[in-house]
Structure formats: C-alpha cells, structure tokens
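Support reply, case 0932

Customer input (verbatim):
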Amino acid sequence: HAALRLEPAVGALDFGGALRSGIGALRTALQGTGTTLVISADIRDGMATSADEAGGGDGAAALVIGDDTAGPVIAEYVGAGIATDEFLERWRVPGSERSRVWEERFGEVTYAPLMKAAFDAALADAGITEGDIDHLVVAGMHARATKRGGKKAFGAAAEKTVDDLASTVGNTGTAHPALLLTATLEQADPGRTIAVVMLADGVEVIVLRTTDAIATHQPTAPVATQIAAGAPVSYGKFLSWREMVAVEPPNRPPPNRPSASAAHRREDWKFGFVGTRDRTSGMIHMPPARVSQKGGAVDDMEPVAMADTQGTIAAFTVDKLVYSPSPPVVFAVVDFDGGGRSPLELTDVDPDEVQIGGRVEPTFRRLYTSDEIHNYFWKVRPVRGEAD
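Our regenerated output:
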C-alpha cells in the first residue's frame, strides 16, 4: 500500500495472517454478492507472565452474509470507512509464537487521527451522524488507543461503546470484531444502528442496522451463555497445552499416526459425523454400516447427519492410564436423540461431574498429534445453560 502510494481510503488486506484479516473479510463479503460464510479465528499468545498472555484470548466467530434467499436478514449493511497507514506498532515474523510492540504512546498518537478519519467516512457513507449510533463496537490490540483515543474520535457515539469482553474472554485479535458484533446482535432490538471499529494497520469501520427479524432470532449458543459455562484452567496446565513448558509425558506408548487412506474412505464420518439409517427398519448406525444390525438388509442405507444432534450418557468410564495431554480421559457411551449409539470421549468437563443421564452435544476436536499429523474427530461435551 505504501510502496504504491495509494490513498488512505484504499484498503490493504491480508486474509490469511494479519490482525486486519477478520474485519477485512467481513467488509469484503458485505460489499460483494452471493451468500458467504465469513469465519475469523485467533489464538493470542505471549511470553509467560507477559501482559499479552494475561490479556489475550482464544476465540472464533462465524457470520453468514447474504440476502433473504439465504434466510432472515437480522442486520443490513449501510456503510463503511477505511483509513490505511503504514507504521510499525505491533509485529510478528512468520513462525514466531509471540508478537512484539513498539512504544505505546506512539501507537496511541498515530491511531487517533486514523480512527476519526475512518469513522467520519463511515458516517458519511451511511448517511448518518454520530448521534445515530446505538451500539459502538471497538476492537484492537492497542488498549490505550481503543479506549482513550476512541473518546475523542467517536464523539457522542463513544458513550455507547459495548463491553469489549476483556475481563471474561480476553482480546481475541483477528476474531474480536466479529465476536463483539455477534454478542451485540444477540442483545440488540430492531432498528438499532451498530458501528464496528477495528484498529490494525490503520482503521476499518463497518455500519450495520438491525431489522425486525432480529426480534425472533434465537441463537443456539449465545456468547453470554458460553462465557457463563466456562471453567478455570490451572496456569501449569495452560502452559503445558501451549507447549511453553515441557512436562513429563504419559507413561504409555504414544498413539500411532492416523491413516490417510482410512480417513479418506470414511471422510463423511470422520469430519462430518455422518452415520447411516437403514431404510427398512429405521435403525441408525454409528459409524456407518453396509449391513443393518436390525433385519440384516444390505446396502439399503441413507446418510444421516449427527453433528447437531444431542444425546444422553448411557454409561461412562474414567481412564487415568490412557495416553493424553490432559489426563484423565472420560469415555462415554452416548444414546443420541432419535436413535444412534456411539462410544465417544468427553471434553470440557470435570470427571467428577459426569453422570449417567447427563445431556451432551457433539463438538469437533483434535484427538492427538502423531508424526506431526493432527488427528481430528468428534467428541461430546455437556450441554450447559446460563443456570449451570
């Protein structure tokens, strides 16, 4: 951008490995055509005991962008503003596990005029004033710039800034604009104007307005519910999971590497959690089968997706000897609603809390890594609500 001497209003985006990736992909989809699924995710690491480690978070958010043909539109795109500039504020070379930061005052002073320029451009594009903003979402890794500088740049709208989730989730970097937008939409009324601001290699601003359809929108897993369902993790375990400290490995042989050919043959089952249903008896088989266990019919099956189906724990065992980076491992026999039974590993749970009859839901996770191959499959986790 700087070498081409482009104007600040021209966006510069790296969709694969930069803090601006998430907001840039979202704006590009909103200004495009067709139905697009925009997913942004990030893991914010830092040196042990550093401010980045303490303030960072892991998060992801997904938004479906399209028109009424893709489903009820709960928020409409009304405008955007961009202010791109090249300056060294936070950087990380490829392969590094931590980013580094220049002096904070420099970043705060440099971001301030960019925030105002991008915000004013977004208001002009949307045909509104700062007083028309009902919810202001401000994200960025530079905390001083987002808080102090924002009060001057956003005028009256600054008083309507939503919670940045710093005390509960932490700063999720690239994912944070979409995460905060999702949390805001889950609580917004119809006809509300939302401005999303992201500070990264300049400033991006997106303005949305909620529709009447948002009044009947029922999110399946609201951000507030996910936060309430969280559980503490010891600092030692956190450091071992992040591979910042080397711990004694399990006293068991490590697992074999996953088979590429076997995984390819069972692709629908392994990645999509798709079983089969016998057309004659209606029995669901997990994993998929060619021969029905009820009636013995051969090759008379239809696929049945199970990834969104909840189930009940019929039996379980706690294994303290199996190879795992987080022992003990809880295995459960799960009876799924509508049919289907499968033995699966439980995750996100204290072994002392598991009980027969407990409700669980599938979640796609990494089982282990062997020979530098990540082996993914489905586990189950407890179904939790705000009351839990």
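We compared this against your earlier run and they match. Two observations from our side: DSSP finds nine helices and 16 strands in the chain. The chain has a mean pLDDT of 91. Please reopen the case if you see a mismatch on your end.
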